[in-house]
Fold:
Amino acid sequence: MTNVEQNVLTALSGELGEKILKIETPQPEKIFIRVKAGVHRDALRILLSKDESTGISAITGVDLGETIELMYHIRTCGTVVTIRTEVPKGEARIKSITDLIPGANFHEREVADLFGVTFEGHPNPKRLILSDDWPKNLFPLRKDADVTNIETKAEKVTPPGRDKQSSDIGTLINVIVGPQHPALIEPEKFSLKVDGEVVKEVDLRIGYVHRGIEKAAEKRTYLQDIYLVERICGICNAAHAAGFCQTVEAIMGTKVPPRAEYLRTIILELNRIHSHMLLLGHAGLEAGYETFFQYMWRDREPVMDIMELLTGNRVIPSFITIGGVRRDTKEERIAEIKAKLATLKKKMSFYKQLLKKDPTLKMRTENVGILSRLDALKLCVVGPVARGSDVKMDVRKDEPYAAYGEIPFKMITYSEGDSWARLMVRLDEVSESIGIINFALDNLPTGPYRVRVSRIVPTGEAISSVEAPRGELFYYVKSNGTAYPERVKVRTPTFSNIPSFAKIAKGGNLADVPISFVSLDPCFACNDR
Amino acid sequence: MSLDLAFIFRVLIFPGFAFIFSLTMFCDWVERKIEARMQNRMGPTYTGPAGILQPFADFVKLLAKEDIVPSDTKSVVFKFAPVLSFSIFVFALFFLPIDGANVVLNSGFEGDLIFVLALVSVANFFLFLSGWSSTNPYSAIGATRVLTQFLGYDIPLFIFALTSAFLANDLSISTISASQPVPFALLVPWAFVLFIITLQAELEKDPFDVPHAETEIVAGYETEYSGRRLAFLKLAKDVQIVLGAVIVVELFLSGPYGPVFLGLPAFWYTLWFILKVLFVVMITEYLTCVFARLRIDQVLVINWRMLIPLSILSLVATVAVAFWLNPMVG
Structure:
């Protein structure tokens, strides 16, 4: 435990005193504080008063049999404090923290859906993740949930159709984007009330691609789960594998060999480059700049080639595994990779000039979809969205994992907070990532690239975060001493970022909605899991 | 009245309907090829040599598709707007000299420039009606955008067109194009450049393609259309692009006129005409590729705050230099 954690701990125990039931540190530098239900709000208030940028990473629910344990993973003072409390299963109610941290809104609704916990005082306690016809009193992540013959238990729902609410009211036109819409690649529903061209109200409904991956992970072995979590998102798959493997390694106490740490860093950064380039091209398309889109995606191809060179696969590399990586690389490949990266680097500086100077692109992105620093902190956004609003937050710097502690790189922040800034953050990060990969290739340690680990994981729990291309990706794994995990919690970056869409779209122009939305880099499949 | 075979030939085959139709298809192919090559793609390659028949194949394919009319639409307008808009664009082309003369010989009259530009506005209004009658939010927004955009951009378009009319001292398109031994594009380059920019908005091309911004409002006013009505709507849009290019050619690039060899004026004039139209199409396509789409309010700001004052300035400048330019006007 370092000074930071010690300070937080002293502050909390000083104020709360007797109310803290237990302090646990299951892994170094991660504090778990057990309190009675209700006290979690006091603890949160203390943390908020100590650090105004306190935000929530995730709320994890775990079914303990008689009770449901709720874990509030709070990002504060440069560390993560987990406040855990229990509510009885029969009378699962707890006070909402949305008034203290507005960003907890979606997290609470998700737990309410999946565990049946009622959050008292929640401003909008509607369904979020489960479909509307899912049986009322069936909570899928509870261990005793009976999901046999689920089709027969479905609730009756009236299709929205042409009722009063969904049709036009007065001068407001209700533009519904999704769940099926030609401009949306993935299904999610956004209802925009439009007055002329100005967006007046935004309503979000997610969950259309909820596949129950957290539940499925409990039914598979740890090894199978790596492949499962990689498929949460096809784009940032390496980050998912890294997050999951790190968490399991923390429970097992496995030390990953340095060569594997470096190889992991390389694949994670390649992941970031191709994800950012994909998004930038997509942003070009949304702004009606098809040439930019075609060029960006053309130049992204060599990155996929490098991935293939390194791992044997282009899209989902399945490279990272518990205890290291699955494949070593050869010396002669390194030169080839470097040559390709050098070309890419040159092209990126051209794109930077383009994004900085092109008048039409600037007119479309500058001062569009502004998210102020204060709102960014309130809504607990992560990754490039936060960094575009001048929030200095990057898991690679804050809690270095893999080889990030040893590699020099800059954290990119822009203070404008508009769509342009968010795109620029990504453009600059691609250049930084190329630097990181080059450094890692130059300083690749020798030695083994993996350690063999047991398939049975000892009892325990751990949390871990990685900086996925879209922001902080959070994992919680609880093990019960078998080859199957007791609970796997994944909080994807999009889930944290998507509530900010309502904020940035409101009051803006309808024509700005696609570009400001895409500047958040939403991934619905990640979002819903 | 006896049946005039030459007249029927001119209207139906050359330089009338069949020629205009083939020219439209050809221009569509050229556009797609240019755009593809600029974006580092292949473009159409499969149908015909170098994919030249692809636009025609697309048209025929759409004709064969099921035609769905949504139950809520105001059906008469919805059904006829595409065909009407297409025929008005073609009709407008009949007044423009193609092989050295109009489609219907000697049909040009004093003031047909204004008539043609008015026809363009009417055809655009039918595009608006096609969207408005669809009762679909995307179509409705697309339709209002069409109207807002054309309402503004018709004004500078008219004023720039007047520049040429002023230089030629005539309001008939045939006379204007015939009185350019030196193309007006060289005499008054500022008006030419600004006219092309205005035309870009008139043709709904980037950076002004807001009425059918596919990422915001799907296909705009086209959203509810399918089958042969969509085919005609798309064809109308393509004819509109050709018409726009032809107007530029007539007003600023000395129409179909150019050097004639071996005494076959009709052949050479048609050739020059096609080459000049392709030149204009190339410019508009180039602009489409290098710009992002603006927002509707930005489009309007550019129109009212920049193009309209500039169009008046351009006219004033032309008047000021007209005295020195006169010897070069035929």
In short: Chain B is about 70% helix and 0% strand. Chain B has one domain: 5-328. The mean pLDDT of chain B is 83.
